[in-house]
Amino acid sequence: MTGIRVMLVDDQELLRASLRTVLSADERIEVTHDVANGSDAIEVVRRHRLDVVLMDIRMPRMDGVAATAEIVRIAPATRVLMLTTFDDDELVVAAIRAGASGYLTKDVRPAALAQAVCDVASGTSALTPGVAATILDLVRQVPIRRTAALDGLTPREVEIFGLLARGRSNSEICAELVLSENTVKSHVRAVLQKLDLRDRVHAVIHAYENGLVGRSDLPG
C-alpha cells in the first residue's frame, strides 16, 4: 500500500535528513522528495503527485509563503504544512492565507509531527497550540465581507458551517445535531466545496470575516 507522499522543503540539509528519518519511521508516510527552496519545490510539484509538502518559511530563491501560494494554484489537491522556527503573527496569517493547511513550529514532538502530516493529508488541519488564537486575533481586524456564496448554503449547511467555525469535530456535530457520521461528512464536504474552502482552518477564517460567528465563538 502506498503511503502518504511527502516532500520536505527546507534550506538546512541536516534538518531535512532528520525530518526524513522521523517521518519515514511512520508506516503511513513515504518521503519521496526533499529540496532546499520554494522554487525547486514548485518544479517537483509540477512533475510529481504529492499529498503533503512540509514547508519552511524563510529560504533562499523563494520563501515558503510565495511557494505555498503557487503550489496551491497549480496542484489544489496537494496540502501544504508549514514547519518553521518562526511564530511571527504576520507570517502565520500570511501562510494560512496563501493556502497552507497547517502551521507548526520546529519544537513539535516527532509523533505529533507525523500525525499532523496524516491529518493534513486527510483534509483536516494542524496548528501548533496558540497559533489558532494568533490567526483569529489578527483575522478579527479584517472588515467583515459578506459574500453571495453564503446565500448558496442550505439552512442545515449554515448550521454545520457555524459549528465548524466554533471548532467542533465531526463527532461533536453528530451528537449536537443528532445526525449520522456519513450525513455530517456529506454536509461538511458540501460546505467546503460551495465556499471554495480548502479545510477547517479556512472555514474558521471565512466564517469570522463573513459575520457568521463572533469572536467569543471561535476556537483557540
Explain what you see.
Residues 146-211 form the HTH luxR-type domain. Keywords: DNA-binding, Phosphoprotein, Transcription, Transcription regulation. GO terms for molecular function: DNA binding. This is Response regulator receiver protein. With 220 residues, the chain is an alpha/beta fold. It folds into 2 domains: 4-138, Response regulator (Rossmann fold), CATH 3.40.50; 144-217, Winged helix-like DNA-binding domain superfamily/Winged helix DNA-binding domain (Arc Repressor Mutant, subunit A), CATH 1.10.10.10. Helices cover 50% and strands 13% of the residues. The chain is built from 11 helices and 6 strands. It has a 6-stranded parallel β-sheet, sandwiched between helices.
In short:
This protein has eleven helices and six strands.
Topology (SSEs and partners):
Layout lengths: L3 E6 L3 H12 L4 E7 L2 H10 L4 E4 L8 H11 L4 E6 L4 H10 L3 E4 L4 H12 L4 E2 L3 H9 L8 H4 L3 H11 L4 H8 L3 H14 L5 H10 L11
Parallel strand pairs: 1-2, 1-3, 3-4, 4-5, 5-6
Helix pairs in contact: 2-3, 3-4, 4-6, 6-11, 8-10, 8-11, 9-10
Pfam family, one: GerE
Organism: Streptosporangium roseum (strain ATCC 12428 / DSM 43021 / JCM 3005 / KCTC 9067 / NCIMB 10171 / NRRL 2505 / NI 9100)
Protein name: Response regulator receiver protein
CATH H level, superfamily name of the largest domain: Response regulator
- Poorly predicted segments: none
User: For the record, what CATH class of the largest domain applies?
Assistant: Alpha Beta
Backbone shape: globular
Helical proportion? Answer: 40-55%
Strand content: 5-15%
CATH architect. name of the largest domain:
3-Layer(aba) Sandwich
| CA-atom Rg in angstroms | 17 Å
What do the pLDDT scores average to?
A: 83
Under CATH, the topology of the largest domain can be stated as Rossmann fold
N-end to C-end Cα span: 36 Å
Give the structural class.
Answer: alpha/beta
Question: What is the string of helix and strand elements?
Answer: EHEHEHEHEHEHHHHHH
**Number of distinct helices:** 11
Count of individual domains: 2
Sketch the major β-sheet.
6 strands, parallel
User: Using DSSP, what is the number of strands?
Assistant: 6
Modified residues (4-aspartylphosphate): 56
Pfam family, one: GerE
Organism: Streptosporangium roseum (strain ATCC 12428 / DSM 43021 / JCM 3005 / KCTC 9067 / NCIMB 10171 / NRRL 2505 / NI 9100)
GO molecular function, one term: DNA binding
